[in-house]
Amino acid sequence: MLQNKAWTLASFPSGAVREDNFKLIELPAPAPKDGEVLVKNLWLSLDPYMRGRLSQQKSYVKGVEIGEVMTGETAGEVVESRHPKFKPGDTVTAPSGWQLYCSVNGDLLTKVDASRAPLSNYLGCLGMPGRTAYFGLKDIGAPKPGETVVVSAASGAVGMVVGQLAKAWGCRAVGIAGGPQKCEYVRSLGFDACVDYKAGNLYDDLKAACPKGVDVYFENVGGPILDTLLRLMNFRSRIIVCGLISDYNAKDPYGVKNFRAILVNRIKVQGMIVFDWLERYAEANQALLELVQAGKLKYRESVLEGIEKAPTGLVGLLKGRNFGKQLVKLA
Ligand SMILES: NC(=O)c1ccc[n+]([C@@H]2O[C@H](COP(=O)([O-])OP(=O)(O)OC[C@H]3O[C@@H](n4cnc5c(N)ncnc54)[C@H](OP(=O)(O)O)[C@@H]3O)[C@@H](O)[C@H]2O)c1
Prior knowledge:
By secondary structure, this protein is α/β, with parallel strands linked by helices. Helices cover 25% and strands 26% of the residues. It contains ten helices and 15 strands. Helix 2 crosses helix 9 (281-293). 45% of the residues are buried. It binds NADP nicotinamide-adenine-dinucleotide phosphate.
């Protein structure tokens, strides 16, 4: 019998997530029922949205209960199938949770082609973060060639893709990231500039990097960075509110102080959740895969080894310790 390991929720964090909010359990791998597929997970994706699942507050998806396996997407290999669309050896992404094996309804699995790109990429630039960048920028930001696109958390899973798409679509791409090393990496991806928000000069540095102002701001962090951007946005510019990571662990969120700029400059501000584009995922998957295969979309991963590291990875991700898409290699 296959032996499984799974992280369950032990307690709800108050403020910052801690490793001891989770408990590792060992149990036999679940046998698949009719319509289900047994998957051996090879990669686990860690994502900022997970902080929202560790709360009893109302959100756009129900949270994890105490004792339940922690939510998460994995990429892995089919071991046994009782669903007509899958056979052993198929590579898939699955809403498996933080565990080594899962038996999942086959209708919830996505078959992916690991011969066209590394399997782990299907959790990053070719997965949920890539699609978020694609639809947010294309449909809400609607950038025109020559416009200036700014993205925060630019060295991260979503941010890296946003800036490279902006370049591919003829725009000036400016990143914001924490520290000189991350900024240098972002520039190496082809961004026109990258500003270090930790250097303490964000407004002046961004102003210099965006001589024609900002037409599209892809918001991943919130807090004082958003307020600074509001001072630089152009007339009829657009802000995609994708994430507010600086608030996720905060007991007293910063909010928005410079709201007036939205009125004065007629800025369109729109929130997004990537599931809203579910019916168009194939469009993004195809466009992103073509860019990866053409060498026009580069991607960095931050890999921890072993399922034991999953809580440490999430704690670090929410503090910016990751450098690239945060993954845990499970086998
Ligand atoms: N709406 C959706 O459907 C959707 C889908 C996917 C992701 N998202 C959101 O998109 C954002 C990025 O997600 P991701 O998966 O690409 O994560 P990521 O950027 O790979 O990692 C998070 C990064 O956020 C930055 N960060 C952390 N705390 C910060 C703070 N207090 N102030 C400023 N920056 C901070 C860190 O980079 P630095 O070191 O540069 O600060 C860190 O590396 C998140 O807000 C996430 O919730 C939304």
